[in-house]
Amino acid sequence: MPMDTRSWNQDGGRPRLTSGLWDHGAAMRSPDVPSTTAATISAAGRSTLHRPNRTSRENALSNSPDQRRLIHRLAVFRRLVPLRIVLLGAAGSVLIALGAVGAAGVLNHDPLLADSGLSWVRFGHGRDLASGLLYLGLGLLVWAWVRLGREVRIERVGTHGVLATIAGWLLPLLFTPPLFSRDAYSYLAQGNLAAHGIDPYQMGPAALPGPLADNVSWVWQNTPAPYGPLFILVSMLVVMVTGQHLILGVLLMRLVMVLGLVLLCWALPKLARLLGGRPERALWLAAANPLMLVHLVGGPHNDLLMVGLLAAGVLVCLQGRHVWGVALITMAAAMKATAVIALPFMVWVWAARLHGSPQSRFIRAASASLVVSLGVFATCTLVTGVDLGWIGALETSSLIVNWLSVPTAVAQIAELIGGWFIDLSLPSLLALTRMLGMVAFFFVAVWQWWKARHGGLEAAVYRATITLFALALLSPATLPWYFSWPLALGAVLNWPGAATAAAVCGSVWLLLVTFPSGDTALYSWFYLLGALAVSVLAAVSLVRPDPLRLSSRSKVADTASLPPG
């Protein structure tokens, strides 16, 4: 039997097997080894490769001024614009936009497709094809986001690169039907009520029949608007411009909401620098997050303008312009009441910059904040021509029942287990657990606010972030995009690697737990299991490229690490 000897080139290429023998010549003629490379065979049967003086000539060339200048320019361009990642995510956004035509929250009667012969994409196999395109686009967008995160982690992409990436990914999403939600139609219907002199805090969209009300989900047909006066003003102006044209109304509403993303991209880098964080990582984690782009932009949702105003207000407060900062945060609360959570924390920031005893500084800062807030909110209310009926309308969110809300999950589990022994009523359990949830949130909020009194700027933002996260978890009703509230502020802080990976996992999972049409997927257990697997894979891929070892480069690296014998 012939001797089995092996040859291993320096770059890790595999030797070739010929007639039961490892062919040394084939190994030395591997594409990884130049043909001019000389080889000698040692007594042990291993090859030792000697490269000629060509390397020195290449080093001399690479050290030339022109070569160094070119390499530097390429590195700068790569840092400014990660072109491959931009194109990968943009391709995903385009596929999402194409699939959304048939699979998203489409109109009951679409004038663009009804007479074009393309209406088949919204039914049967056509809808399945559209859904496949949309989910393929989601996969590409998530993949691009994780790749961008790896570049940001090793500081190869800076702030300008992340901003350019966000712009490239955002553009196709501006022209889609509502994604993963039908709330945009509710916004237009509520604005339509206000435009016709009907109080949207007293009546639901069904009070004014027509194309706008017909496309509102049946759940919200007779419920009043739970949003602040500034948002009612915005939606009313949108309807006054677009009339009963639903497609133009959705597009204009989305463009207005995108102003919140612009504010977020302006505020996050500055906040990160103030608090010792990394601007590019804050932008990547919050503004470039597919949860933010697909749900809040694609939705579109008024949460986007709310978090943009909130981040801008917090930044202005931290910079020392407290009156303007409080005014911006109040405007955010006039969009959606959630933003009011940040105001008490900004009182500590303001008080720390005043003179006098701790008690007098707090009283002056709190009084000034209250006066500014009441003035701004009263102005928004008077200009819109509504009253405070939105406060009572906040209870309408209790119609949403899903287990993303911790109190709701507890009630559902209690009914499931306790129902084996006694007859339990889910509505009664929900009333109890939701009340306990709000009590728990009250104690969390007060404790976090009190802990922030001596911690400075970072403590105020950190504690406000925890409180917003607690609100998202303990609210009577929770939807996936509610977790953008703490993300908008928390992204500016210093995140350890494990927390960043957990944020990636949670963001991707929340992105997927709603179907593109807006229906919840939280009770499709096999689907949720697949979504969890994808989310974990995305989180692992952030810190370990190619965890499934699918790339040929990974296989070559494994091969190169083996001993040559």
UniProtKB/TrEMBL annotation:
InterPro entries, per the entry: MptA/B-like (IPR049829)
Superkingdom of the source species: Bacteria
Membrane topology category: Multi-pass membrane protein
Cellular component terms (Gene Ontology): membrane
KW Disulfide bond (keyword) present: no
GO molecular function, one term: glycosyltransferase activity
Cell compartment(s), UniProt: Membrane
Pfam families tied to this protein: MptA_B_family
Biased composition (Polar residues): 1-10
Keyword ATP-binding: no
Record-annotated membrane-spanning stretches: 85-109, 129-148, 160-180, 225-243, 250-269, 304-321, 327-350, 362-384, 404-422, 429-450, 462-483, 495-516, 522-543
Protein keywords: Glycosyltransferase, Membrane, Transferase, Transmembrane, Transmembrane helix
Region (Disordered): 1-64
Family (UniProt): Belongs to the MptA/B family.
Name listed for the protein in its UniProt record: Carotene biosynthesis associated membrane protein
Taxon lineage: Bacteria, Bacillati, Actinomycetota, Actinomycetes, Pseudonocardiales
